Amino acid sequence: MAESNTLQGEGANGAQFALQRIYLKDLSFEAPLGGEAFRYNWQPKINQDLNTSVNKLENDHYEVVLKLTISAVIENKTIFLVEVQQAGLFQIRQMDPKQMAMLFNTTCPQILFPYAREVIDSCVVKGTFPALALPPINFDALFFRAIQQAQAAQTEKDTTQATTN
């Protein structure tokens, strides 16, 4: 993906956000039970874990990695496990830390998620399991919930320290 999408503020010196490239950084698919997995009645519990990481590269370039781990479990046995690291290269200029935190935790993962979702579905189908269409994720809500939890934890910590002093 060579073209970039840019959001600019006022004038040439305004804040900029540009998508440079989307790529698959890492992929793992496991079916630990092999053929035995196909003998079970197909009603698995699907577990999903997600995380993001940010690596600052040169100048105003950042690599954002969306890590997804999906497992299907039946009767406490893992039927399949897919781990994907979908990455994007983003150029970000002249933004304050709050704006950048919002981009790294909401906008960038929202851009990367459909690609990761497609990779996961493709791997599961190639493993001859039923298609797995992950539901959309509201990264804005997850980010704001994390902020609220951090603030609540800080308030509790401050209250505990004040009462013990």
Walk me through what this model shows.
The protein is α+β, with helices and mostly antiparallel strands and 165 residues long. It has a single domain (6-136), classed as SecB-like (Bacterial Protein-export protein SecB, Roll), CATH 3.10.420. The chain has two helices and five strands, in the order βββββαα. The protein has helices at 97-126, 139-164, and strands at 6-8, 16-30, 45-56, 61-74, 77-93. α1 packs across α2. The chain is flat.
Question: TL;DR of this structure?
Answer:
The chain is α+β, with helices and mostly antiparallel strands.
List the keywords.
165 residues; alpha+beta; Bacterial Protein-export protein SecB; 5-stranded antiparallel sheet; 34% helix; flat
Topology, please?
Blueprint: E1 6-8, E2 16-30, E3 45-56, E4 61-74, E5 77-93, H1 97-126, H2 139-164
Antiparallel strand pairs: 1-2, 2-5, 3-4, 4-5
Mean pLDDT value: 89
Uncertain residue segments: 6-11
Secondary-structure element order, as H and E? EEEEEHH
**First-to-last CA distance:** 57 Å
- CATH fourth-tier homologous superfamily: SecB-like
CATH architecture: Roll
Query: What's the helix count?
Result: 2
Whole-number tally of structural domains: 1
CATH third-level topology: Bacterial Protein-export protein SecB
Shape: flat
Main sheet characteristics? 5 strands, antiparallel
Estimated structural class: alpha+beta
Task: Give the C-level CATH assignment.
Answer: Alpha Beta
Rounded to an integer in angstroms, the radius of gyration calculated over CA atoms is 20 Å
Give me the count of strands. 5
User: Hey, roughly how much beta strand do the residues contain?
Assistant: 35-45%
Give the % helix: 25-40%
Strand order across the largest sheet: 1-2-5-4-3
